[in-house]
């Protein structure tokens, strides 16, 4: 999915829209509808949360291909 938000002016008669290269030759659907300011705030907040969660996950995630849990080592209290 490709999403862009813009504010047209009265003099705009062409929509600035770039189609991703991998969509060339495919059928696509373009839907336009107005967004009120409360919806914009919700979308911006969701986007900020997604970015922060991605940063947190990348910072605190184990490298799954190189890490192997050793139960014996974990239970060795000596």
Question: How would you portray this structure in words?
Answer:
The termini are far apart. The protein has 78 residues and is mainly α. It is 36% helix and 0% strand. The protein is built from two helices and no strands.
Short overview:
The protein has two helices and no strands.
- Note the run of SSEs as H and E: HH
How large, in whole angstroms, is the Cα Rg?
23 Å
Largest sheet: none
- SS element count, helices: 2
Percentage beta strand: under 5%
**Helix/strand/pairing class, anyone?**
mainly alpha
What general form does the structure show? elongated
Mean pLDDT score, rounded? 76
> Fraction of residues in helices?
25-40%
Number of strands: 0
Q: Uncertain runs with pLDDT below 50, 5 residues or more?
A: none
Q: Give the oligomeric state of the chains in this entry, treating copies of one chain as homo and distinct chains as hetero.
A: single chain
Topology:
Layout (H helix, E strand, L loop, with lengths): L36 H24 L10 H4 L4
Features:
elongated, 2 helices, mainly alpha, 36% helix, 78 residues
